Amino acid sequence: MTNATTNSFATPFAPADSNLTNYQRKHIPAFTWDAHACLPLDEKTPINLLDTYVAGKIDYVCVNVGMDMNSVAHILRVIAAFRAKITAHPDKYMQIEKFEDLATAKSKGLLGVGFDLEGSVMLQDMPDMVPVFAKLGVKQIHFAYNRNNSVAGGCHDVDMPLTDLGREMVKSVNASGMIMDCSHTGRQSSLDIMAVSTKPVVFSHANPKVLGGHERCIDDEQIKACADTGGLIGICGFQRFIKSPNAPEVPDMIKHIDYAVKLVGIDHVGIGLDTMPSVAGCDDFPDGIDRSYYWPAQSGYGPGAGGAAVFDPRKLPALADGLIATGYSTDDVDKIMGENFIRVAKASW
């Protein structure tokens, strides 16, 4: 599909049998990265939900710990609970605090876990809040969850530019060791963020609009602008955005990967599945949240708007096999499955 190139980030993360080819390793990439996953935002959430990512041979997963509709108190409780539960299982998980921790977790056979924030309301209009959350393990952030706020526009609201405060927030993200993300962000604000940022910008979980069709998907100009920053698109496995008739499978994912690779090249495509398991007795939302505001029916949510199934992370090895069968080289597969995000993390963290 593309000319294979040697990725200098592969060696430090290769397992002990690094002399074997990917074919001999059953096409499991050197490092597998899921750029966005959701767990119920509740301190009662069982941390063994992460075992799904272990079963998918994922080396690093970025877990959401708060959105614009969640209070700061709620988000802090979630972060405290998740950190404590990860620490309580040192045989399975490792909290990722700095770039070098990725290699450490990989060498020990542990699932590396970082956090992300979906929105900026929790920053309280203070750029100085960004490094505070960075110290708590937040490795990635976007500024608006579907709706406009004081920092940026959301993808399901009146399109608006990045505000002056938003420009200061971008600078703070760049300086604080986070990855700048534009998922869920309005079109003009995303383009402004990518113009302001001095570090690579990603869409951690988004799909090409020409294929997905949904308002939450991104157009070719956004994809190209993202690649121009050195960033990448994490192809999302959410059924409604991937536009599959049933739960997304390997061919559905490959269709979106192919489109993005042909548009901007192999170095600018990754994986961000956006899994969202539910657990009885756990709730993402405090009382009083208007779900119809953040997920409006007129924007393609609710009954009759398509399914909400997500590509199963346990099928990522099958996706790697499928990409190779389609014609991608093993070097290409390694880039898509994780090494492109490793490059962005090294530049950002």
Quaternary: single chain
Q: If you average the pLDDT, what whole number results?
A: 91
CATH superfamily: Metal-dependent hydrolases
Globally, the shape reads globular
Extract low-pLDDT stretches. Answer: 1-16, 19-24
User: How many domains in all?
Assistant: 1
Task: Name the CATH architecture.
Answer: Alpha-Beta Barrel
Q: DSSP strand (E) fraction?
A: 5-15%
Structural class: alpha/beta
CATH topology: TIM Barrel
Secondary-structure element pattern, one letter each: EHEHEHEHEHEHEHHEHHEHHH
Protein name: Peptidase M19
InterPro entries: Metal_Hydrolase, Pept_M19
GO molecular function: metallodipeptidase activity
Can you walk me through this structure?
This protein has 349 residues and is of the alpha/beta class. The protein has a single domain, classed as Alpha-Beta Barrel (TIM Barrel), CATH 3.20.20.140. The chain is built from 13 helices and nine strands. Strands 1, 2, 3, 4, 5, 6, 7, 8 and 9 form a nine-stranded parallel β-sheet that branches. Helix 10 (250-264) crosses helix 12 (316-326) and helix 12 (316-326) packs across helix 13 (330-348). The chain is globular, with a radius of gyration of 19 Å. The protein starts with 32 loop residues before the first strand and ends with a helix. The model is unreliable at 1-16 and 19-24 (pLDDT under 50).
